[in-house]
Amino acid sequence: MAIKGSLREASLADVCQLLALGQKSGCLSVADGSRFGQIYFERGRITYARIVNRRDRLGDILVREGVLAQRQLEQVLEHQAREPDRRVGELLVSYNHITKSELKHYIRLQIEEAIYHLFTWSRGNFFFEPDATPDEADLVVTINPESLLLEAARRVDEWSMIEKKIPSLDLLFDAEHDRIRSSDVVLTVEQEQILPLLDGTRTVQEVADTTRLAEFDVGKALFGLIHAGFAHRVGRKAEDTVRGREAELQERRNLGVAFYRTGMLEDAAREFQRVLELDYKDFAARYHLALIGLREQRYRDAVRQLRTLLEERGAHYGAFVNMALALRWLDRPADALLVLDEAEAVRPGVPGTELARGIALLHTGRYFQARSAFDEYRARLKPDMRPSADYFYFAGLNLAAMDQLNEAEALVAQGLDSHAVSAPLLLLLGVISERRGDLENADRSYRHALDEDPSLAQAHKNLGDVAYRRASHEESLQHYLRAAELDPRLGDDVFARIGNLYYKARSFDSAVQYWKKALQLNPDNAIVRNNLEIVAHASG
Prior knowledge:
alpha+beta; Arc Repressor Mutant, subunit A; elongated; 5-stranded antiparallel beta sheet; about 10% strand; single chain; 3-stranded antiparallel beta sheet
């Protein structure tokens, strides 16, 4: 189940401790305006962390520790500029500058430094997405969060004091160099490093980037100079002079993608709209705006945007696959199949194409063809790839539709072994039990599904059906009402049942209200129309 909240209500340290104690796996995302970071967990232990648009600190750490020369780092960064998909660490190993074991050690330091920096954020929101994992190219470690909490708590306390003098990293500071030289004051190593850069032209962030020190260390060193009266604030560098147009485009794209992946669609749309203001031809921004429309269930808008992209850009695999998804939701599975043929032509042999084909065939009622497509999906997977939760759900649903309940149940059980917290799989398990007349196990599976995803309207609807069959009318009514509240488009049968239950309870006005809603969804529902006529006749 997703966890979200505000950092004003719960500190990041408290949230991390909760995830560690619960041995949770997934991604904890933190957003504060234009700042965005992520911490990944595996069974309660930290495996990776990143801060979007923050300078890559691995090279800085290696130079700072004397492991790497500045010239060697520049050579690797030039190579990465030609191959942006390759990580700095991977290139360092390929150049024999460090060993794989050294890389893992310094990646761990980089992750710890990112986490310490995130812990100083006291505003914004957090969101935990279960089972999310780092990118395949990311080198993961395993860190006990408790080992970080004491150091993090110390830094948070210190940073709360530092922020009073340095509330933002885009501020400019100047130092009284002559006065410092003429005094007998003893500076720390960090203060010696930052002092030459405090000339009123560099931001605190630029000082950190130049010295390769962490933001916390720069802030602490600068705070000491300010407190002693040796440095003072002279202003803030305007955003348009801090970043060039291309840099801002890249930063906003990165933020938009990070917000999108975390489900923060409004924030993602804001960043992509800003990208289009800077470059109206930006493909990535338009593509992601189409995906946002898809996730917000604006399927016609998504189809229009994707069609425009295809006309402007030409054949694009992702655009075809997502258009097929939108068409399926618009109850146009035949059109979706045609679009998937185009996707297959662009990138033959991709497993996801065949999975989407199987789902579309299922929606057309061609169950045997759908089963062949689902089998082909599994055949296309590499040996180290596990089938997705969607595969287990839709392939299981297809088997259930073919009345092969034993096979369906076995496949769902296999899916739950790989995706234990999949609410749709638990929902389908309940459906199979209900089809067999096993209401007790059906009820248990539906409730388990709701434990994982309380917003699952179909689970409430199914619990309402189970309670209705047991003649537990009050319980049934509550589940149906909750289902209708979560998804008013769930189906006319939900509103019809609510009307029936209100009628049994002699709440005739409420019964008529919900029967009318059912008729709006399905004007051909003869039973509901007949009920309304009976009530109208009885009331004279």
